[in-house]
Amino acid sequence: MEILGASISLLGALFLFLGALGITRMPDTFNRIQAGTKATTLGTLLTLTGIAIHTPEWTPKILMLIFFILLTNPVSSHVLARAAHFIKTPLTDKTVIDKLAEQEQQKKEDA
């Protein structure tokens, strides 16, 4: 079980590294938020799962951590993205659709 737990934790560390790499390589704030959130969520969950397999007596506490991470990471990234959009953070030139801007424009036209 130790080798399995260590392997899963190592896979989680790899995803955490890829998330950090994605943050440095993505062209704009919104892509960085997505890369950071998705990869770090998976990396953290895999790392914690590996620890739970390696040390079974910690499993209840680790399950609470996993629940908390699954609950807060998507919400926090959504709030960050909305705040960045609200202060008019520029998109990359490769972005072709901005649904939130379209929604805001539609609300202005309806009002």
Structural description of this entry:
- The structure is a single chain.
- The chain has four helices and no strands.
- It is mainly α.
- The mean pLDDT is 92.
- The chain has one domain (2-110).
Short key terms for the protein model shown above:
81% helix, 111 residues, 4 helices, mainly alpha
Secondary-structure map with pairings?
Blueprint: H1 2-25, H2 29-54, H3 59-86, H4 99-110
Helix pairs in contact: 1-2, 2-3
The profile of the biggest β sheet is: none
Strand content: under 5%
- Low-confidence regions: none
- Helical run tally: 4
What structural class do you assign from the helix and strand content? mainly alpha
How many β-strands, per DSSP?
0
Global geometry? elongated
Give the number of domains.
1
**Alpha-carbon distance between the two ends:** 62 Å
Short description:
Helix content is 81%, strand content 0%. With 111 residues, it is mainly alpha-helical.
